[in-house]
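Z., the sequence and structure:
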Amino acid sequence: MSRYRPPGEKGSIYITAEGYARLREEYDQLWRVRRPEVVKALATAAAEGDRSENAEYQYRKKELREIDRRVRYLQVRLPDLRVVDRAPDQPDRVFFGARVELADDAGETRQHRIVGPDEAGEGPGYISVDSPLARALLGKQPGEVFTVRLPAGETEMELVSVSYS
């Protein structure tokens, strides 16, 4: 389990291999490229004199704080994440990483992929495994009809298909 979670951060420690690679790349980019650039620009701005009225200095200080906050978060979060990179033993049921097609009570279909909270929203239809819709889907098979409470209200849906591509 996680040793530390930033305020407001909660949820599953699971992540897809692609999501983990994106977070790892973000960390490397921030730590090896972006932070050194900002530190250099901050030093240049600091050398220009009065820091209290130096907008460039103030901006770079704020930017460095934001980078450091994200770097600290990633340093703690990355070791705690568990990469799920294989299909489940029952590929005809919905589990973490599933791509699903749903039909709502109006007959409209939509596709989703169940992913970890760190990667929800990263791709089209990506939803967190901790979301009400994903929780309602877990363990279901194509053809099953279920009711889910969404922000817009309670709705009935049918699981049309599930895949792990």
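The beta strands are 14-16, 82-84, 99-104, 109-115, 126-128, 145-150, 153-163. Residues 1-8 have pLDDT under 50 and may be disordered.

Let me know what you think.
H.
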